[in-house]
Amino acid sequence: MTETKLASNLLQQQAYVNGEWIDAEDGRRFEIRNPVDGQVLAKVADCGVAETRRAIEAAEAALPDWQAQTAKARADILRRWFDLVMQHQDALAALLTAEQGKVLSEAKGEIAYGAHYLEWFAEEAKRIDGDILAAPSQDQRVLVLKRPVGVVAAITPWNFPNAMLARKVAAALAVGCTFVAKPAKETPLSALALAALGEEAGLPAGVFNVVCGSDSSVIGGELTANPIVRKLTFTGSTATGKKLMQQCADTVKRTSMELGGNAPFIVFDDADLDAAVAGAMAAKFRNAGQTCVCANRLLVHADVYDAFVDKLSQETEKFQLGNGADEAVTMGPLIRPSAVDSVQAIVSEALEAGAVATVGGQGSELGDCFYQPTVLRDCAPSMRCFKEEIFGPVAPVFKFETEAEAIQLANDTEFGLAAYFYSRDYARIWRVSEALDYGMVGINEAAISNPMAPFGGVKESGHGREGSKYGVDDYIETKYLCMGGL
After folding, report:
1. Coiled coil where (predicted)?
2. Residue intervals in the chain for CATH 3.40.309.10
3. What does DSSP assign to residue 203?
């Protein structure tokens, strides 16, 4: 897809700061390429410290008026933003597929998923209540107010370039914060399109700003060092999240971190195997395996192991690799050639150690960013595919004998984002759900994320929650007033 084919009011190639579309001060731009064929989609303003600082200062200037707005006024703008996103769902999905690679049906799903966070938090904006607490004496009153934390900075990933931004900005703006977003350098176009629709929805200048750049460390350094920013929200790798937390420590910023995962997918011997296979297909291969909640380790009871592997392999063979813009295609490329190299290294190590590829196991002749959907059987916990987040379309299957062994294997990781299991034994469902050390658990269900539920992990998968009634907590300060002399 060429630049001209994408041209529309949604294809923005400048940064969005203080309600204006601006170039980098030095005029530099960087290229955004389609991972399918490497074609240039756009040349975006290459921002640095100066532009980021302008955005932060604009957000600070806009903060008093925005937080002074009534909750309903903020809610009305968020609701209009939701309506506009849904009106432009097809165009936004085409843009997303072009820059990120996921198939068009998944891109449309992401647009709707992200939009519904705008809708949800538009409604939650009107439900942020304080309290009057019992006082220690008759002449006092104790009041608790909920106040916005202030200017929020967000660093968002390339795998869900629309939805990860939407669910952060919706919560922040709903409570009265202002916002500076730094999207991934691979996929800034979705964020800029969201800004264009936010402006149309009536967001005042400075409330929502987007700065893009080829050097993430430069922009990230300013966001973490600038004392005006009071909160940083990040979705990405655990290694990067740790660095950002260290950088935020000097100014004692609030942080919320949605980091890496290593999700177990457990299939017990009493499970509905067809349902478990369907769930594994969805949990493992969505976005070509490039999601933080992907099923990374499939743990299957010995009694149903062979039957499960056979069924999973048969379904995996049905994928059609190609350009995600083609409606016949069911799996697109990985984000960059180096991602393919990383996946291949993990697969090769497993094969050398005794695993068997029943499907796939190598790259594709379609291009440097394509990897064949793969199923590996006879995997062992000593392999990299057990210990590391694969972030590609590879399903390694491990065998277990007892419930206790399955729980031990599932929890044997520093990560704790999502876990899944299939069973029809209700006593087991309670035991295993409580024993799994994860922030989210899908029970006979692979699609666990929605605006009504709190999304987030434990251990080295991060802290904080996005979505649900809990999703505003990370953007709020609790302020206590003691009134005496009554």
Report:
1. none
2. 263-450
3. P
Q: Please state, in angstroms and as integers, the Cα–Cα distance from residue 344 to each residue in 226, 286, 367, following that order.
A: 40, 19, 14
Q: Which of 363, 412, 358 is nearest to 383 (CA)?
A: 412
Nearest to 180 by CA among 325, 12, 16: 16
The residues, any chain, with a CB within 8 Å of residue 478's CB and separated by 6 or more, are: 144, 145, 146, 147
pLDDT at 291 (0 to 100): 95
pLDDT digits (tens, 9 = 90+) for 73-108: 999 999 999 999 999 999 999 999 999 999 999 999
- The two tokens of residue 469 are 């009634």
Residue with tokens 């929650």: 465
User: Is the sign of the CA dihedral 245, 248, 249, 253 positive or negative?
Assistant: negative
**Start-end ranges of CATH 3.40.605.10 in the chain?**
3-259+461-481
Measured between alpha carbons, how far is 224 from 295 in angstroms, rounded to an integer? 32
Over its C-alpha atoms, the chain yields an Rg (Å, rounded) of 23
Determine if residue 298 is left, alpha or beta; phi over 0 gives left, psi from -120 to 50 gives alpha, anything else beta. beta
Q: Which CATH class is domain 263-450?
A: alpha beta
In 3D space, the residue among 102, 390, 353 whose CA is nearest the CA of residue 265 turns out to be: 390
Residue 89 contacts residue 111 (beta carbons within 8 Å): yes
Q: What is the DSSP string of 119-185?
A: HHHHHHGGG---EEEPPSSTT-EEEEEEEE--EEEEE--SSSTTHHHHHHHHHHHHHT-EEEEE--T
Residues 175, 125: Cα–Cα separation, whole Å: 6
- In this structure, what token pair is assigned to residue 80? 């209009």
Integer Cα distance of 186 and 121 in angstroms: 28
Provide the annotated active-site residues.
258
CB 242 within 8 A of CB 486: no
Sorted by sequence, the CB contacts under 8 Å of residue 338 that are 6+ apart come out as: none
Per residue in 199-221, pLDDT (tens digit) is 999 999 999 999 999 999 999 99
Q: The tokens 């709190």 sit on which residue?
A: 454
Give the Cα separation of 396 and 42 in Å (integer). 37
Token pair for residue 357? 């590829």
The encoded tokens of residue 56 equal 């932060």
Total count of residues recorded for the chain: 486
Supply 324's token pair: 């995600």
Numbers of helices and strands, H then E, in the chain: 15, 20
Average pLDDT value for residue range 472-483? 96
What does the alpha-carbon distance between residue 57 and residue 55 come to, in Å, rounded to a whole number? 5
For the domain bounded by 3-259+461-481, which CATH number is listed? 3.40.605.10
- CA dist 155 and 253 (Å) reads 14
Helix (H, G, I), strand (E, B), or coil: what is residue 458? coil
